């Protein structure tokens, strides 16, 4: 009887859970439908009416790029300096953010004998640094420092330090402690233990995450240029703002962005594969 009563109670709990889940789904669906209806009423044109014109602007860009003929390739070359500026922003930001991330990771990991009271403080700092998107930080810095690549670089580096610091600290937690204990028994200082026992183990994974973050930062730097932080994004904002007549320039920027990011992705994936393979071999 006790077993039967227990089975009945489990079935009852399961049914209640399914009922609550269904009610939650219906509530979310009702909120989405009502929100869509309200926003559709506030728009100057309805969503369905605008959907039919969705491909009009991309079509104009393709047509103008085709009409440009061989001059289109000259436009691509014209925007290479702006693309290089975006790559410089991403590269410097990744270097600065990566250096900060190493310090934060070492200070926030118990497995490398960091000072105990400092660990939760540094971890909360990294949480805060990851919580704010690069775009929000860049908009604030542009207001303070003016439109230039510097706000974009600081914003990307700030977010990169928090994101990479979290990844690096997880790598630190999985290292072998025997080299650390051996050096500690010999009287080595904390910095010596980090240099000779920790870094040789974590360096391949650090570099792998660093290259992955560089890919992300190139995209982020291009987006930040759209809000006035310089680089290829600023040129894209200008050409789109001009509307009809600048479609060939817009297409040239899109093609240049695509080719650059694809090249970086391929090179980074190749290098990360080599690094991970080398770390597994050891």
From TrEMBL:
Keywords: Cell membrane, Membrane, Transmembrane, Transmembrane helix, Transport. One of its GO terms (cellular component) is plasma membrane. Signal peptide: none annotated. It is a multi-pass membrane protein. Residues 83-268 form the ABC transmembrane type-1 domain. GO terms for molecular function: ABC-type phosphonate transporter activity. Coiled coil: none annotated. It is found in: Cell membrane. The chain crosses the membrane at residues 19-37, 89-107, 128-146, 252-271. Belongs to the binding-protein-dependent transport system permease family. This is Phosphate-import permease protein PhnE. It comes from Roseibium album. The lineage of its organism: Bacteria, Pseudomonadati, Pseudomonadota, Alphaproteobacteria, Hyphomicrobiales. The gene is phnE_6.
